[in-house]
């Protein structure tokens, strides 16, 4: 068993699922909303965990104890972001540092959020395939005339990701290096769950 666990982290593709937010607009943890006989977070973890040659890190923060109690998957690494209130960038930094701790030779990292209910394994795989096909160091998901998550970064951008501050997130780097960015279509990628109205539409 020890060999299997060690071997797992030789994979070159890290996937970070950002799940540290407080869901202030929703009023309850969005990570735990029921969806597809599980939760939004577990659904994202399930889809990410099916990606070959990858390993998954989940970053928790607000409501961490409640989230951990409900988690089904054991094939992940959890890390707690004590600075979650400072914004998403702190979770990006925390997750990427954990990825590099597990595998310093990680070649690419994909960042995903926990509240895009229509994310699938295919979306993650399409990012990886587009990365190999185009040789672009950033591959983002395209929806609603914007580029967003899930998004893949080659290790050449890890230093800049680790310097992110506050609420800015990774979009700052995508915009800065537009010429080194490719994209894939993510149908329904614009649908995320921020309010009770969003959730009602999803389960209706």
* Residue fraction in strands: 15-25%
The CATH architecture is Alpha-Beta Complex
Tell me, briefly, the overall form. Answer: globular
Largest sheet: 7 strands, mixed
The CATH homologous superfamily is termed: Spore Coat Polysaccharide Biosynthesis Protein SpsA, Chain A
Listing every helix as H and every strand as E from the N terminus to the C terminus, the arrangement reads: HEEEHEHEHEHEEHHEH
Mean pLDDT over the residues? 89
According to DSSP, the number of beta strands is 9
Strand order of the largest sheet: 5-4-1-6-8-7-9
Note the total helix count.
8
Work out the count of structural domains. Answer: 1
Structure notes:
The structure is a single chain. With 204 residues, the protein is an alpha/beta fold. The protein has one domain: Spore Coat Polysaccharide Biosynthesis Protein SpsA, Chain A (Alpha-Beta Complex). It is built from eight helices and nine strands. The strands form two sheets. The chain has a seven-stranded mixed β-sheet, sandwiched between helices. Strands 2-3 form a two-stranded antiparallel ribbon. The longest helix is centred in the middle third of the chain and has 15 residues, at 88-102. The radius of gyration is 16 Å and the shape is globular. The protein starts with a helix and ends with a helix. Residues 16-177 form the MobA-like NTP transferase domain. Keywords: Transferase. GO terms for molecular function: nucleotidyltransferase activity.
């Amino acid at each position: 068993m020890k060999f299997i666990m060690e071997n797992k982290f030789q994979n070159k593709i890290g996937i970070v699922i950002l799940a540290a937010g407080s869901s202030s607009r929703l009023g309850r943890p969005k990570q735990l909303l029921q969806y597809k006989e599980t939760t939004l977070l577990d659904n994202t973890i399930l889809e990410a965990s099916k990606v070959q040659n990858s390993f998954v890190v989940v970053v928790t923060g607000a409501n961490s104890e409640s989230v951990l109690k409900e988690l089904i998957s054991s094939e992940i690494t959890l890390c707690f972001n004590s600075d979650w209130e400072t914004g998403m960038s702190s979770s990006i930094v925390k997750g990427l540092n954990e990825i590099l701790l597990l595998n310093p030779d990680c070649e690419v990292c994909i960042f995903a959020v926990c509240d895009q209910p229509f994310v699938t394994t295919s979306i993650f795989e399409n990012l990886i395939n587009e990365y190999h096909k185009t040789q672009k160091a950033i591959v983002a998901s395209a929806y609603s005339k914007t580029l967003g998550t899930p998004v893949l970064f080659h290790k050449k951008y890890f230093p800049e990701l680790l310097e992110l501050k506050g609420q800015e997130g990774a979009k700052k780097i995508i915009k800065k290096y537009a010429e080194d960015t490719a994209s894939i279509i993510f149908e329904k990628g614009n649908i995320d769950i921020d309010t009770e109205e969003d959730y009602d539409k999803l389960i209706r």
